[in-house]
Design a protein that fits this description.
This protein is α/β, with parallel strands linked by helices and 232 residues long. Helices cover 41% and strands 17% of the residues. It has one domain (9-231): Rossmann fold, CATH 3.40.50. It contains 9 helices and 8 strands. α6 links the parallel β2 (114-122) and β3. α1 (23-33) crosses α4 (79-93), α2 packs antiparallel against α3 and α4 runs parallel beside α6 (123-130).
């Protein structure tokens, strides 16, 4: 009998890795500007945004505060209103991407990789964004909706805080036979390192396992470096 062919995965983060911003942040600010979220929401987040912008505060603190405020103000809002703004954001900003990762996605797809996008941004806007790259699968955060209205309850941020467990569950559910050592992980934060254990690679043995770590300067001198890990 022929052995089943192993699948090579290419797992990408989106925000700050493909998209030159964060889909979640763009959506949050658009909701304020359109009056769906109150104006005071901008003021509430400003004290966390400015320190991050001036590099005196942590990005994760800013991100987590945006998430808390989104959770606070999404309750009672119509899903159709949120979706309409998400579509507008994708329509006007879909090309605001990094050339390197854009081209890398296309190259890996041609080479037969199964491409997966995992983002902490909301699932609907993630799926809209991923259409242009024809990802095989994509995952984002989920917010409960009943009768077309966001309840503000049961918001699932597994795709932000537990990417590895989400990937584990997906691979198991799809009964995939994965070639981990020849799979690819791409991201711009320390979160990408959680995938190393799936690839069977320890940090201390990256070189001996034929791993490479690349750093690319993002557009503009004030932006952080992007860490990209991939195998040959």
């Amino acid at each position: 009998m022929k052995k089943a062919k192993k699948i090579r995965l290419a797992v990408f983060d989106i925000d700050g890795t493909i998209f030159r911003s964060a889909l979640f942040f763009e959506l949050f600010h658009a909701l304020v500007n359109r009056g769906i979220f109150p104006k005071k929401a901008e003021k509430e987040i400003e004290k966390y945004y400015l320190p991050w912008f001036h590099r005196t505060g942590e990005f994760n603190r800013y991100r987590d505060e945006v998430i808390q405020l989104y959770t606070k103000y999404i309750k009672g809002k119509k899903k159709t209103d949120i979706d309409a703004i998400a579509k507008e954001i994708i329509s006007t900003q879909k090309n605001k991407v990094y050339r390197f990762t854009r081209d890398l996605i296309h190259r890996l797809k041609k080479e037969g990789y199964y491409t997966i996008a995992i983002s902490g941004s909301l699932d609907d806007i993630v799926r809209m964004f991923c259409k242009q790259f024809n990802f095989d699968a994509s995952f984002g955060s989920h917010a409960e909706v009943k009768e077309g209205i966001f309840t503000g309850k049961d918001i699932d941020f597994t795709s932000l805080y537990n990417k590895d467990s989400l990937l584990r569950a997906f691979v198991k559910e799809e009964n995939m036979l994965v070639d981990w050592q020849n799979s690819v992980g791409v991201g711009d934060t320390e979160g990408i390192f959680v995938f190393l254990k799936w690839w069977g690679v320890l940090l201390r043995s990256i070189r001996t396992k034929n791993w490479h770590s690349m750093q690319k300067r993002k557009n503009g001198p004030s932006l952080l470096r992007e860490k990209i890990l991939y195998t040959n």
